[in-house]
Design a protein that fits this description.
- It contains 16 helices and 18 strands.
Length: 480
Amino acid sequence: MAPGTSPLTAHGLPTPDPDPRDRILADVSALRASFDAGTTRPLEARLAQLEALGRGLRAEEPRLARALAEDLGKSRTESALTEIGVVSQEIAHTRKHLRSWLRPERLSLGPLLAPASGELRREPLGTTLIISPWNYPVNLTLAPLVAAIAGGNTAIVKPSEVAPATSAALAHLLRTHLDPDWVRVVEGAVPETTLLLEQRFDLIFYTGNGAVGRIVARAAADHLTPTVLELGGKSPVFVDEGTDLAAVARRIVWGKFTNAGQTCIAPDHLMATPRTLEQLTPHLTRAVRALYGARPERSLDYGRMVGTRHFDRVLGLVDDEKVVIGGTVGADRARRYLPPTIMTGVDWGDPVMGEEIFGPVLPLLAVDGPDEAIARIRAGEKPLTAYVFSPRREVEERFATETSSGSLALGFTLAHVGAPGMPFGGVGESGTGAYHGQAGIEAFTHAKPVVRKPLRPDTLKLVLPPYTGIRRRVLRRLMR
């Protein structure tokens, strides 16, 4: 992108309003007033808004599917599987369990406060900001919103301008089907996001890359605002000897090349012993052809890069001398098409290993075995996900205990992110906080201890000075 060019202009969109400040300030003020009035606190009101979101999602599915196809080349089936269906399941799961998740939890207070009772209540945070990415723009916008609504909050939603058609479709859905006292949408690019980050929110939920995540964290720190940061990283795969290589190859190829590799938890690179790599590579190439055909550019199930800037970056990571399938030959910048590409003989110092790939390029790297694979993972930043394919339970357990990652998937790729009851989040450079299901409620609420102690009998006299005689002896016994 040329210096001074906004992401909106780069995608052929009109530049933002000269001064959106009044509109954004009005939205934030209106939502804060709504929260302060108690609009979002009743459980039945939350359930009603979640039901409205589900109805809206069903009603707007054709519009959303068209937008996803325009922005990312997603097929109708992939959109249903990885975007709209995931959110529908999240809504249903949350509505089913919300009452129990919000039920006060009884606390044990110990003998010093007796007689007394205590409980932990889930308290809404207030007015929240959700900044969503372009790669799964429906899923990663609406799933956090489900948690925000269920937690009893109001929310400003800022979709990504990099997926402009989907941003517009999401704005239409939310403005048409949800109560503006609960949710407002701000479309735009960097100026709008910057202005939003200058405002005070009660939680900022950001999904995207680490560079912008740091900007969000610094802005939040100015107001001591808590954040959930869903970032990314180089999610590794280790394939052990003795696995069913044909089955493993299919699962890796699907996880890697879904959405043209533009998935935060996509397998970034694959490690195995030289012997296993030699045996696995033909299975990987066959799996690519089985899933996407001999001409993936003609496949209705293979996506496109979101824009030419991302196309150019990923294409620059490809070394055609190491390509066993795909490569720069056949890549089409005008159509944003990058073929599914597998590279062998890759070294750890190659450019493709210097950053998160976030595209349809899979490097294969030789390691001595589990020991070196674990050491390589530990030497890098903590990934969002790690994948292990091994017939040996002890090897799986070693990766579980000796490596750190946002999640660990044993024997499959990608699918765990769609499980509504499974917390999803990163650790270290791959993010902070988690959501989905009950974890989303925990992210968007404050766990407030409430303690009640009667005035009679007045046992607290024991803790008041002077600490002499029997009072001192009793206190020492109680504090053991």
